[in-house]
Amino acid sequence: MKVVAITGEKQCALVDKPDPKAGANIVVVKITITPMCTEFKAYKNGSKSESLGHEAAGEVVEVAQPCKVKKGDRVVVMPLDACGVCPLCLDGEYIHCQRGVDVLKITGSAAGRATYAQFLVKNDWQLLPIPDGMSYEHASMACCGLGPTFGAMQLMRVDAFDTLLITGLGPVGLGGVINGVYRGARVIGVESQPYRAKLAKELGAAEVVDPNDKDALAKIKALTKGLGVDKAVDCSGVPQAQRLMIDALRRKGHGSFVGEGGELTIKGSDDMIRKGITLHGAWHWNLADTPQMMQVITKSSRLLDKVITHRFPMSKVKDAWELQLTGNCGKVLLRPWE
Prior knowledge:
By secondary structure, the chain is an alpha/beta fold. 30% of the residues lie in helices and 25% in strands. Strands 3, 4, 5, 6, 7, 14 and 15 form a seven-stranded mixed β-sheet that branches. Strands 10-9-8-11-12-13 form a six-stranded parallel β-sheet, with helices on both faces. Strands 1-2 form a two-stranded antiparallel ribbon. Helix 1 crosses helix 13 (317-326), helix 5 packs across helix 6 (171-182) and helix 6 (171-182) runs parallel beside helix 7 (194-203).
């Protein structure tokens, strides 16, 4: 099979790897769509790797024994390789599993964990069935396109009574706009990149504030009659934006951290005690909420067609990464068999 490799600073290639094999309850999936996440940062920095990506949708093509899926099933591939038996996994919170499994060792495969590839191996229970009539492209948004902010909004119980702030409108934050709009919330975005600020409004954001504006906090407060927002999600991972999120929350408001980032100072007294806010960390979403996730995807198809802005054959991955570096895109998809 063909696999994408980063070979140096802004250098990449397609390399040949042995096709993976099924074993036990670990099956082989032929990848149809690979949503691109933050791998472009490794491409920019020259962090060499032949195991890239954590999002995919495709078709089960090999099973070793009867299990939860069968050949021909269309599935969304959930990230990581969790154990499936610890309390976190059994509770649907597999993303926080501390045990994990070595799928390559179990199947005897030399490769198969990457999603920038034509095939992968995965636990059967980490493959979500794609409903009839749903495209691979839309289904793949159950990973990082909609997933992290969906999980955050489930935790915070975002609804139509809320004004929701989203700081950082990259692909994950734009997915957050879709999730917020679906729930009926009034969405305020924070973004300096013009292309993405414009796209956020097309997706339904009521306002987008520039974080470089010295009056950004005052403008957010003015949009909420001076009280602050009810709920907020940071998708930037930038400490300044995370601080803005906290400062923009109303008293007793809820905020979630989705974007990976650096150190942030949280004030135990002024933020947590006197303001009474609740802060969450949201990495992914609980698998028990799969029906709700599929409902969001089904009923947001028009917006998903907007947020998916570009598609590339895997042979043109370099062009896709160069585009991502400009920021002039929403969610970008790779097609491994083109």
